[in-house]
Design brief:
Strands 1, 2, 3, 4, 5 and 6 form a six-stranded parallel sheet that branches. This protein is α/β, with parallel strands linked by helices. Among the domains are: 158 residues, Rossmann fold (3-Layer(aba) Sandwich); 116 residues, Translation factors (Elongation Factor Tu (Ef-tu), domain 3, Beta Barrel), CATH 2.40.30; 155 residues, 3-Layer(aba) Sandwich (Rossmann fold), CATH 3.40.50. Helix 6 crosses helix 7, helix 6 runs parallel beside helix 11 and helix 8 packs antiparallel against helix 9. About 15% of the residues have low confidence. The longest helix is centred in the first third of the chain and has 20 residues. The protein has 19 helices and 31 strands. Bound molecules: flavin-adenine dinucleotide and NADP nicotinamide-adenine-dinucleotide phosphate. The site of NADP nicotinamide-adenine-dinucleotide phosphate (NAP) has 26 residues, from strand 28, helix 16, strand 30, helix 18 and strand 31.
C-alpha cells in the first residue's frame, strides 16, 4: 500500500494468544467506516512489510506475556528498537498505543509501557493517549472507549474532515422502545436507530418507554420463557448433556463422578432466571448504546454423502500454537497418582509422561503446554442446544460468505475448511470463554423474547459494562450458559464459529529434573471444580484438568480414550519465553515460596540440586529455603516425604510449612507469608548479605501480591526504612532478576 495516501495509517499488533490481533482487526474494520485506511501487520513483519523509519503515523496494539515480556511475535521488533539508536531516530513518527495486560500480575502491560517509553526516548510523539486494557476486569472496558477516541484523534492528526464529530458515536446504535423487525421476526418493545445524528438520539430518549422488568419476566411473554433445559447424564464420566424441551419446567443436572456415584440437582425453570437474564433498574430504564452488528462472513454446508477422516486433519488445522518452542508431541502416561486424600478440599494429581519421542528439553522451572480438547458431552450439549446434534459427525465445509460485508473475511486459520462439527467444537474453538460483547450483539439478532433481547442489549451496551463484568465475566459463563439462560435465543452454528475464540493449550510447570528423570517429564495439577451457580447452568470441571483427570482414569483402567485424539494420550509442546530458572552459580542461596501446586517447579529445583550435590562433591552449595503452605497437614501436604528427605540430606536447608485450615494455636502461621514474617530477619540477611534469589510460584490473584507485601513489610521492619523505600528495594530486586515470579490466575 502506498504510504502517501492521506487517510492511511500503519496498524501493528503484537499478539500472543490472538487478542491483540483480533482488536487490531476490529480497528482496521472500523477504520473503513471512518473513511480511514489501516495498513495492518503483525509486529513480527518488521523490515519485511513495514519500516517504522518510513512512517509518519502508526497505531500499535500489543499484549504482554509471562512475567512482563513481549509476546513472541513482538520480540524482533522490540529488540530492534532497543539497539543503540540516536535520540531523534523516530522524531518523524506520531503514534497511538494500546497495551493489553492483566493487573493480577506485577508488571501490568509491561510490553506496552516499555514500548511507549522507548518510542518517546527515540523522539516519536503520541497523537493520542496510550490506553491500558486490563484482562482482570475485561479488556473491553478500556478497549471500546479507546477505539472510540482514536478516530477523532487520527482524523485531527491526518487533517481529515470529521474529527470534531467524534468517531465513536457513528459506530454505535441506540436502543429504545418502538417496533423492530429483525430476521423476519417482528418484535415489539425495541427499535434500532443509527446514530451519529445526536438529535435523533436525544429525541428518542425523551420518548423512552422502556419496559421495567420484574425478575426478567412479563406476563405476555410467558410462552417464550417456558422453554427449559434438561441436563442429563450421558454415557461419559463427570459430565452432563443438555436436551432442550418445551414440555417441562424442570432442569435436572445429574453429576456422575469417576467412581460412578451420582447426584442430581433439580431446579424449576420458573425460578432459574438469575442476574444474567434479569433486567433491573437503572439499566433496564436506560437508553443503551450497543455496538453495530458484526457482519456475518462464514457459510457452512453439510455434505452427508462425503466421508471425512478427522484423524487425518492436523490439530487446529496445523496452525502454530502461541508460545510453542517445539512441535506438538503425543506423550504416553508412564505414571499417575493422586497426591491428596479423599477429604482434601482440592484434588491434586501427579502425572509422569514419556517424552523420548519428542524434541522437548527442559530445565527445572520450565513449563510445557497440554493441548486439550473440550469436554465431549459439553460439546454435545452445545450442539443439541444449537439444534445440529444430528449433524455432529457429518462432513462440513466452511467457506467465506459471498457478498459478506466484512472486509478481508477469511476462515479462522485454526479451523479446517473440511471437517465435522464435532472436530471443530471439540478441538478448535473455546466453548468456555465468556462470550465477548460482539457475540452477545450477534445473539440478540436471534432472540425472539422481547425481555431477553432487551437484556442482551443491556449486557452488550456501553452502559452495561458493570453488569457484563458482574454477570458474565466474573462467574465465567460459557456460551452454553448464555443460551441456557436466554432460552429464546437460537443462533445458527456458523455465527458461533465466527465468534468463538481459539481453544488455547494450558501450561503446567515441570516438577522434575532431567538429571534424575531421563526421557520423562512430570507435573502436578489440581482438578478445577466449578459448581452450577451464579448463572452457570451446569456443573463442570476445568477444561484441561477435567480432561486430564478423565484421561488419567482411562490410563488407570488400561483403556485409551478413542473419542478424543484417537489414542487417549496427552499432546504437549515445550514453551518459549522461560526465565524461571535456578542461577548457574550453585553457591547462590535460594528462597522458594510455593503454596499448593505452586510447589511444583521447586520439586524440580530440589531434585536437580540433589543430583548436582552428588556429582559436585567439592562445591559449597548455597542454602535453599522453602516456604510451603497447604490446607491440612494430613490431606493435601504435597510431596511431604520427598521434602522431608531433601531436608534430611541438606539439599533443603530450611522447610517452613503453614497449614491454613488445621486447628492450631492462633499465633501459628496460616499462610506462607506469615512464615516469611516470622523468619523476616534471617530472610533479609540471606538476601542482603548473601545475595539470595527469591522465587514465587502459584496463585497470582492473592498469594503473589500478599507475599510481595510481606517482603515490603519485613524489609521495612528489619532495615528501619519506610514502606515506600522498602517497595523500591523490592522493585530493584525484581529488575535485577533476584525476585522472580511464575504465577497464574
Ligand atoms: P479452565 O477451564 O481454564 O478453568 C479455570 C478458570 O475457571 C479460572 O481461571 C476461573 O476463571 C474459572 N474458575 C475456576 N474455579 C471457579 C469456580 N469455582 N467458580 C467459577 N469460576 C471458576 N496449574 C497447575 O495445576 N499446576 C501447574 O503446575 C501449573 N503451572 C502453570 C504454569 C504456567 C506458566 C501457567 C501460566 C499456568 C500454570 N498452571 C498450573 C495453571 C494451568 O495452566 C491451568 O490454568 C489450570 O490447570 C486450570 O486449567 P483448566 O483448563 O482445567 O481450567
Ligand atoms: P491454592 O488454592 O493457592 O491453596 C494453597 C494454599 O494457599 C492453601 O492453604 C490456601 O489456604 C493458601 N492461600 C489462600 N490464599 C492465600 C494467600 N492470599 N496467600 C497465601 N496463601 C494463600 O493452591 P492450589 O489450589 O494448588 O492453586 C495454586 C494456583 O497456582 C492455581 O491457580 C494454579 O493454577 C497455579 N499454579 C501456577 C503455576 C505457575 O504459574 N507456574 C504453577 C503451579 C500452580 P486457604 O484456601 O485455606 O485460604
Amino acid at each position: 500500500m502506498p504510504t502517501s495516501v492521506a487517510n492511511r495509517f500503519l496498524l501493528l499488533y503484537g499478539s500472543q494468544t490472538g487478542q491483540a490481533k483480533a482488536i487490531s482487526e476490529e480497528i482496521a474494520e472500523k477504520a473503513r467506516d471512518q473513511n480511514l485506511c489501516a495498513d495492518i501487520h503483525c509486529l513480527s513483519l518488521t523490515e519485511k512489510r513495514f519500516f517504522l523509519e518510513r512512517e509518519k503515523c502508526v497505531v500499535i496494539v500489543t499484549s504482554t506475556t509471562g512475567d512482563g515480556e513481549p509476546p513472541d511475535t513482538a520480540l524482533k521488533f522490540v529488540r530492534r528498537l532497543k539497539k543503540m539508536l540516536p535520540d531523534d531516530h523516530l522524531s518523524h513518527l506520531h503514534y497511538a498505543l494500546l497495551g493489553l495486560g492483566d493487573s493480577n500480575y506485577t508488571n501490568f502491560c509491561n510490553c506496552g509501557k516499555s514500548l511507549d517509553k522507548r518510542l518517546q526516548d527515540l523522539g516519536a510523539k503520541r497523537f493520542y493517549e496510550s490506553g491500558w486494557a486490563d484482562d482482570a476486569v475485561g479488556l473491553e472496558v478500556a478497549v471500546e472507549p479507546w477505539i472510540d477516541g482514536l478516530w477523532p484523534a487520527l482524523k485531527r492528526f491526518l487533517k481529515l474532515p470529521g474529527a470534531e464529530l467524534g468517531g465513536g458515536d457513528a459506530e454505535n446504535i441506540t436502543v429504545d422502545t418502538h417496533i423492530i423487525s429483525t430476521n423476519n421476526t417482528t418484535l415489539t418493545g425495541s427499535t434500532v436507530i443509527e446514530t451519529g445524528n445526536k438529535s435523533t438520539q436525544s429525541d428518542i430518549s425523551k420518548n423512552s418507554t422502556v419496559p421495567i422488568l420484574t425478575n426478567g419476566k412479563k406476563e405476555e411473554n410467558a410462552e417464550s420463557s417456558q422453554m427449559s433445559c434438561d441436563i442429563n447424564q450421558s454415557d461419559c464420566n463427570n459430565s452432563c448433556v443438555t436436551q432442550t424441551t418445551s414440555s417441562t419446567n424442570k432442569i435436572n443436572i445429574v453429576h456422575k463422578t469417576e467412581n460412578g456415584t451420582s447426584h442430581t440437582t433439580s431446579t424449576d425453570s420458573s425460578i432459574k432466571k438469575c442476574g444474567v437474564a434479569v433486567s433491573l433498574p437503572p439499566l433496564s430504564e436506560s437508553t443503551l448504546t450497543v455496538p453495530l452488528l458484526p457482519p456475518s462472513f462464514l457459510k457452512i454446508e453439510f455434505h452427508p454423502q462425503q466421508s471425512v477422516n478427522i484423524c487425518d486433519i492436523p490439530r487446529q488445522n496445523g496452525c502454530d500454537f502461541p508460545s510453542s518452542a517445539t512441535p506438538v508431541t503425543m506423550t504416553t502416561v508412564s505414571e499417575i497418582k493422586t497426591l491428596t486424600s479423599d477429604t482434601a478440599v482440592k484434588k491434586a494429581m501427579f502425572v509422569e509422561l514419556d517424552i523420548k519421542e519428542s524434541d522437548i528439553q527442559y530445565k527445572p522451572g520450565d513449563s510445557f503446554s497440554v493441548v486439550c480438547p473440550n469436554d465431549e458431552t459439553e460439546v454435545q450439549s452445545l450442539l443439541t442446544r444449537l439444534n445440529v446434534l444430528s449433524e455432529i459427525d457429518t462432513c462440513v465445509k466452511i467457506s467465506v460468505l459471498e457478498n459478506t460485508k466484512k472486509r478481508n473475511a477469511s476462515i479462522p486459520k485454526f479451523v479446517p475448511e473440511v471437517s465435522t462439527l464435532r472436530h471443530i467444537f471439540t478441538t478448535c474453538l473455546d466453548i468456555r470463554e465468556p462470550p465477548k460483547k460482539a457475540l452477545l450483539r450477534v445473539l440478540l439478532e436471534y432472540t425472539s423474547c422481547v425481555e431477553e433481547k432487551r437484556r442482551l442489549q443491556e449486557l452488550c451496551s456501553k452502559q452495561g459494562n458493570e453488569e457484563y463484568a458482574r454477570f458474565i465475566r466474573e462467574p465465567s459463563l460459557s456460551i452454553l450458559d448464555i443460551l441456557n439462560n436466554f432460552s429464546s435465543c437460537h443462533p445458527p452454528v456458523d455465527r458461533l464459529i465466527e465468534h468463538l475464540p481459539r481453544l488455547q493449550p494450558r501450561p503446567y510447570s515441570v516438577c522434575c529434573s532431567s538429571l534424575t528423570l531421563t526421557g520423562k517429564i512430570s507435573f502436578i495439577f489440581n482438578v478445577v471444580d466449578i459448581e452450577a451457580d451464579n448463572g452457570r447452568t451446569y456443573y463442570r470441571k476445568g477444561m484441561c484438568t477435567g480432561w486430564l483427570g478423565r484421561n488419567v482414569s482411562f490410563y488407570r483402567k488400561g483403556i485409551a480414550d478413542p473419542r478424543v485424539y484417537g489414542d487417549g494420550n496427552i499432546p504437549i509442546f515445550g514453551r518459549t519465553n522461560q526465565s524461571f530458572h535456578m542461577p548457574d552459580d550453585v553457591t547462590v542461596p535460594l528462597i522458594l515460596i510455593g503454596p499448593g501446586t505452586g510447589v511444583a517447579p521447586f520439586i524440580g529445583f530440589l531434585d536437580h540440586r540433589c543430583s548436582e550435590r552428588q556429582t559436585l562433591t567439592d562445591t559449597e552449595f548455597g542454602e535453599v529455603w522453602l516456604f510451603y503452605g497447604c490446607r491440612h497437614k494430613d490431606r493435601d501436604y504435597l510431596f511431604r516425604d520427598k521434602l522431608a528427605n531433601h531436608l534430611s540430606t541438606l539439599v533443603l536447608t530450611k522447610l517452613h510449612v503453614s497449614f491454613s485450615r488445621d486447628e492450631l494455636p492462633s499465633e501459628s502461621p496460616r499462610y506462607v507469608q506469615d512464615n516469611l514474617r516470622l523468619h523476616g530477619a534471617e530472610v533479609v540477611s540471606l538476601i542482603e548479605e548473601r545475595n539470595a534469589v527469591i522465587y514465587v510460584c502459584g496463585d497470582a490473584k492473592n498469594m503473589a501480591k500478599d507475599v510481595n507485601q510481606a517482603f515490603i513489610d519485613i524489609f521495612a521492619k528489619c532495615k528501619g526504612i519506610t514502606n515506600e523505600e522498602s517497595s523500591k528495594l523490592i522493585m530493584m530486586l525484581r529488575l535485577n532478576r533476584r525476585y522472580k515470579e511464575d504465577v497464574w490466575t
